[in-house]
Amino acid sequence: MESSMPRTAAIFAVSAVTIGLATTAYFVLSAESGDRFAQCRGGVVSGGGGAIGGPFSLISETGERVTETDVIDGLSLVYFGYTYCPDVCPVDLFRNGEAVRALDEQGIEVKPVFITVDPERDTVQQMAEYTDFMHPRMVGLTGPRADIEAAIAAYRVYSGRVGDDPQDYLMDHSSYSYLMDPNEGFLEFFPSSTPPEEMAERIACYAAEL
Q1: CA–CA separation, 97 and 5 (whole Å)
Q2: Is 135 marked within a binding site?
Q3: Is the pLDDT of residue 7 over 90?
Q4: Does the annotation place 205 within a ligand binding site?
Q5: C-alpha Rg value of the chain to the nearest Å
Q6: What is the per-residue pLDDT across 185-200, written as a single tens digit (0 to 9) for each?
Q7: Which cysteines are disulphide-bonded (predicted)?
């Protein structure tokens, strides 16, 4: 199968749509009282932010086994998708990269992280090429299916295969970006509709409170 990179570059203008509505029930667009980050939030997680995130052990784009403590060692934007995604993933990841660049200009370092939901096709090499194209600091994570499923469950991500062809198939999945901190854990989620300028502004707000 041909590399997805040329196709990715051609479809950045495609409007992003939120896939995997099964996860929507986790998110409530209101701020909790007594929350020191209340002025930064666009929403909270039903059941509390502790419902999102947790341990994982995956393979990095450099071929090393890493855990959540290795990856989320500072403010991080975590996104689940796949490199063969024809529309929403490249748009969201490019948007995340733009937000990170805007934050760099403010002296705020945020690590963009991309975890595949399609490890059967997303090899270490494929992830490295894809993430390098999106942002030079983006970390790509793949691994055995069982390890990917554990990460998917920890982040309450919806994912399902569409199609029976062993190579030519799609992955339906939720498309939220999660702002994580090594000490606070989950801080915020950003749907596909959030523009990079708003993401950068809200992340900067969190950074100021940490």
Answers
A1: 16
A2: no
A3: no
A4: no
A5: 16
A6: 999 999 999 999 999 9
A7: 85-89
